[in-house]
Write a structure and sequence with these properties.
The structure holds two protein chains of two kinds. Chain A has 16 helices and eleven strands. By secondary structure, chain A is of the alpha/beta class. Chain A has a single domain, classed as Amidase signature (AS) enzymes (Alpha-Beta Complex), CATH 3.90.1300.10. The chains are: A alpha/beta, B alpha+beta.
């Protein structure tokens, strides 16, 4: 048994029993990174020195007989749009190449307080804009299942690191599916929490009203454990929710008897790969078999989610990314006057996809277009929320695909619009602010993982974990490992 | 043709909160550049704003003091534009749902009483300060940015176009400043930049209802500049219209040295701010209970206080107006009045002696060393005949300079009034003897000579002689001759 393959809860046992030390565990991961990440390219920055120091501190605690938390001594990675004090935080952009924040994100603080081991910063699509991680200004990340495929995105580095056992778990961010879709492509569990459940302080904003930080993990139990550590009200984030956050592991009962589960028809059929649809239906059938009540249902406004999203997200992004002007930090291109400095800095600092979205958003917010685009998009957003409200009045949980397909081939999709359509299953839940979880559920004919998505009403993470855990305990389809020969 | 002037104002007031609007940096003036900054007000990636509740409280107080409706539901919006003094490339402000709207300020001018509408008051953050190595940002090899002011809370007060003259504008601004000062939400000092004014001015033929094309003159930082701008713009626009030309809708800037306004940008290239609700801040919900709590906490407003001074204290309208125009002055008056009853005398001393010294020294009332009870003691000494009015002025000057009690100064300098008849009789006799010509004139019926003789005696006594006693003794002496 390779220790790098183990989950948080399995490794915690070993650490507590002193069958392994945190330093050994960390070294094992650092060695794997050194050996394999030249191929996978999951990491932009590896913080090996820091990781070993943190590991030593955990070992000291263990040998002093102190009790340690479940995440203590477990090596992990965070997406490179999460601020880490004194450590490069680049958003995979030339604009922030070498940028070292003077502060850490609230989630990073929380994990540090749990004595988590930071292995490094994971690659991503530039400023989280994209769904392949090919938009990184530095390099593309490969899918550990098949080096010719993308890992998904934008949290592709975070997903690939976990799938390739280069980290036990990772944090990503999800604005329109950026945790769930790469989790699906890489065959791991990914959860986008309820908007407001995890503080956004220190997350470099893409679209503030949609962004949520969440875990990518090897199984459902790990997902619950990470959630326990990262959720909570934060006074530094005005949109953070004051809520009595539960112990998420309590939801891991394995029992779904009597749960009402909806299968929305708008997430199936046209545009969805039949193999993917078949697995979603298989998962639904499995739940029925386990005692849940499954029914087809309808979310009629789903088809408007994509156009609404591609107005709201770029609009917010166009404003959020205004601060990268070359004046205070990051890239500055010298020019003859200040206006040219702004223009040249942004011209050279941003990649094509980021520029495309800034232009889209700027247009949508311009006077004369605001009502027709941005305002209308906000109205659609409300209708989508109402769709979900109505559905969750009847169902505890919805089941759907995470993505229309399995992992795309590298460079397969050059048409931005076609790529945007790939977000169709994940976008509506960001617009509504509700939680959604992607669970691996079998492989397609090319031996690539398929993801099944579970959606719940706001703060229904326990329900999603409960359902996912039941599937995990009752099938062999959820804990998948890449064919090492082919992938790595 | 006869033209009517139409003027509206936009006034920016810096709120006197201890910390900035969205972070906990201090708002103090005078720190070394970039010492009152943090990742939040520097807009560093990943940081988020959290509203300082004091800002909301102060904005509502200002709104209530200006008779506004307070919005139960309000929000912050982003005003997007690029400029190096703006750390996020957007200013957090309020666009379509300001915290206060539909208020008014009453003014009084030579044309009588008038009500100036307040369209809205909204909250926003200030930007940083740029220091250019050359004249402007585009002609400089470099500019330095100081973000100490970035994120300092402001309210913007927008008036209706209800003003018709420079006098209206001055009265409006004077009352606005006083109201702000009374509420305690700002120092409202134009000279320090904590109160800045933009003037919108247009002309229209008398009798026409439609407004003419307006010019907006930005960032005026003294009352005098506002007055000069209004007068200058009226002249400039009149000349254009008289010559058959058209006023261009544009933003203009005031050149204080040359005394002229200059075009900054025309409406065609006006800014596109792409306002939209700030997703980092939640909507502002204000309850009636909170509004009423703040309303109850407001002090007496200048207008009401002025009326009370006229009715209860019997002060002339002019005196009451001057004293209530400044909270500090009104407080000073109240302080003296608490120990002394002759209100007209208090007002005279405040308006003539105190204000003359304050203006001459160029200091703020808050920095005056004399305490109100010391002033009351001085006035009592005059009434008791301990010192003459003339000596009192000298004593006042000394008090102003040192903050010492009047009695101590009088004692130190031997300024006590001489009312002792014995001593004064000698002085009278000496002066009468030394001025036979004046005595002759007096006897011949020239009453003026009396005044001259009194003056000579006062001089001889170094001003310390009691004038009433001298008058009496001198008359007796002359009549007996």
């Amino acid at each position: 048994m390779t220790i790098s393959r183990l989950t948080i809860h399995e490794l915690h046992e070993l650490l507590v029993k002193k069958e392994i030390s945190a330093v050994e565990l960390t070294r094992e991961h650092l060695d794997r990174i050194q050996k394999l990440d030249g191929d996978v390219k999951a990491y932009i920055t590896v913080t090996d020195q820091l990781a070993l120091e943190q590991a030593k501190a955990v070992d000291a605690k263990i040998s002093a007989g102190e009790s340690i938390g479940t995440l203590a001594g477990i090596p992990m990675a965070v997406k490179d749009n999460l601020c880490t004090k004194g450590i490069n935080t680049t958003c995979a952009s030339k604009m922030l190449d070498g940028f070292q924040p003077q502060y850490s994100a609230t989630v990073v603080h929380k994990l540090q307080a749990e004595n988590a081991i930071l292995l490094g910063k994971a690659n991503m699509d530039e400023f989280a804009m994209g769904s392949t991680t090919e938009n990184s200004a530095f390099f593309a990340t490969k899918n550990p299942w098949n080096a010719d495929c993308v890992p998904g995105g934008s949290s592709g580095g975070s997903a690939a690191a976990v799938a390739a056992d280069l980290a036990v778990y990772s944090l990503g961010s999800d604005t329109g599916g950026s945790i769930r879709q790469p989790a699906s492509f890489c065959g791991i569990v990914g959860l986008k929490p309820t908007y407001g459940a995890v503080s956004r302080f220190g997350l470099i904003a893409f679209a503030s009203s949609l962004d949520q930080i969440g875990p990518l993990a090897k199984d459902v139990t790990d997902t619950a454990l990470i959630l326990n550590a990262i959720t909570g009200y934060d006074k530094q984030d005005s949109t953070s929710a004051k809520y009595d956050y539960p112990d998420y592991t309590k939801a891991l009962t394995g029992d779904v008897k009597g749960l009402r589960i909806g299968l929305p028809k708008e997430y199936l059929g046209e545009g969805i790969d039949p193999e993917v649809e078949a697995q979603v239906r298989a998962a639904a059938a499995k739940l029925e078999e386990l005692g849940a009540v499954v029914e087809e249902c309808s979310l009629p406004y789903t088809r408007y989610a994509m156009p609404a999203y591609y107005l709201i997200a770029p609009a917010e992004a166009s404003s959020n990314l205004g601060r990268y002007d070359g004046v205070r930090y990051g890239l500055r291109v010298q020019a003859k006057d200040v206006v040219d400095m702004f223009c040249d800095t942004r011209k050279q600092g941003f990649g094509a996809e980021v520029k495309r979205r800034i232009m889209l958003g700027t247009y949508a917010l311009s006077s004369g277009y605001y009502d027709a685009y941005y305002l209308k998009a906000l109205k659609v957003r409300n209708l989508i929320k109402q769709d979900y409200d109505q559905a969750f009045a009847k169902y505890d949980c919805l089941i759907a695909p995470t993505a229309p397909t399995t992992a795309l081939h590298k460079g397969q999709n050059q048409d931005p619009l076609a790529l945007y359509k790939g977000d169709i299953c994940t976008i509506p839940s960001n617009l509504a602010g509700i939680p959604a979880l992607s669970l691996p559920y079998g492989l397609d004919k090319n031996q690539m993982p398929i993801g099944v998505q579970l959606l719940g009403k706001a703060f229904a993470e326990p329900t999603l974990l409960q359902v996912a855990y039941a599937l995990e305990q009752n099938t062999t389809l959820t804990r998948l490992k890449p064919n090492q020969g082919k992938g790595l | 043709m006869e033209y009517e002037v139409v003027i509206g104002c936009e006034v920016h007031v810096e709120l006197k909160t201890k910390t900035k609007i969205f972070c906990s940096c201090p708002t103090d003036f005078g720190g070394a550049p970039n010492t009152h900054v943090c990742p939040v007000c520097l807009g560093l990636p990943g940081t988020l704003p959290v509203l300082n509740k004091k800002v909301l409280e102060y904005a509502i107080k200002a709104g209530l003091a200006m008779n506004c409706e307070i919005a139960h539901f309000s929000k912050f919006d982003r005003k997007n534009y690029f400029y190096p003094d703006l750390t996020k490339a957007y200013q957090i402000s309020q666009f379509d749902l300001p915290i206060c709207k539909n208020g008014y300020i009453d003014i009084e001018t030579s044309q009588g009483a008038k009500r100036i509408g307040i369209t809205r008051i909204h909250m926003e953050e200030d930007a940083g300060k740029l220091v250019h190595q050359g004249a402007t940002i585009t002609t400089s090899a470099g500019s330095l940015a100081d973000y100490n002011r970035a994120g300092v809370p402001l309210i913007e007060i927008v008036s209706e176009p209800d003003m018709r003259s420079a006098e209206d504008v001055m009265a409006f601004l004077t009352n606005l400043k006083a109201i702000i000062e009374y509420t305690g939400v700002s120092d409202a000092r134009m000279e320090q930049g904590s109160l800045r004014c933009d003037v919108n001015l247009s002309l229209r033929p008398v009798g026409q209802e439609v407004f003419g094309t307006r010019a907006e003159i930005k960032n005026l930082n003294s009352f005098r500049a506002v007055e000069r701008v209004v007068k200058y713009e009226i002249e400039r626009q009149t000349e254009i219209l008289e010559a058959g030309g058209k006023v261009v809708q544009e933003t203009r800037t005031w050149d204080d040295g040359k005394g002229i306004t200059l075009s900054l940008r025309s409406k065609e290239d006006s800014d596109e701010y792409r306002y939209f609700p700030d997703p980092d801040l939640t909507p502002i919900i204000v309850t009636d209970a909170y509004i009423e709590e703040l309303r109850a906490s407001l002090p007496e407003m200048p207008q009401v206080k002025r009326q009370r001074m006229m009715e209860e204290d019997g002060l002339p309208a002019y005196d009451a107006g001057v004293i209530t125009a400044s909270k500090a002055l009104a407080d000073f008056y109240d302080g003296v009045h608490a120990h002394y009853n002759d209100t007209k005398k208090i007002s005279n001393w405040i308006m003539v002696e105190l204000l003359a010294k304050v203006n001459a020294e160029g200091i703020e009332l808050a920095d005056v060393k004399i305490r109100p009870e010391q002033m009351a003691a001085l006035l009592k000494l005059i009434d008791a005949g301990e010192i003459s009015g003339k000596i009192a002025k000298k004593v006042f000057g000394e008090m102003f300079a040192t903050g010492k009690d009047a009695e101590a100064i009088i004692k130190e300098q031997g300024l006590v009034q001489i009312s002792d008849e014995g001593a004064l009789k000698e002085m009278v006799a000496a002066v009468v003897e030394a001025n036979p010509k004046s005595v002759e004139d007096y006897k011949a019926g020239k009453k003026k000579a009396m005044g001259f003789l009194v003056g000579q005696i006062m001089k001889a006594s170094k001003g310390q002689a009691n004038p009433a006693v001298i008058n009496q003794l001198l008359t007796e002496k002359l009549d007996s001759m």
